[in-house]
Amino acid sequence: MRIGCALPLAKGLEEPLEQSQLLGSMGYDYVELPVSGFDLTGPDGTRAAMRCVASTAIPTAVLSSLMPVSLRVTGPDVNEDRVKTYLSRAAEVCHAAGAGVAVFGSARSRNVPEGWSREIAHDQLVTAFTWAADAFAGSGTVVAIEAQNVKEANIIRFLDEAVSYAREVDRPEIKVMVDFYHLDEEATPLTDISRFGEWIRHVQTADTGRNHPGSGNYDYASFAGQLRIIGYDETVSVELMKPLTRDMMRQSLDFLRGIWPASLSTVQPTPRVDTME
Question: Which CATH superfamily is domain 2-264 in?
Answer without folding.
Answer: Divalent-metal-dependent TIM barrel enzymes (3.20.20.150)
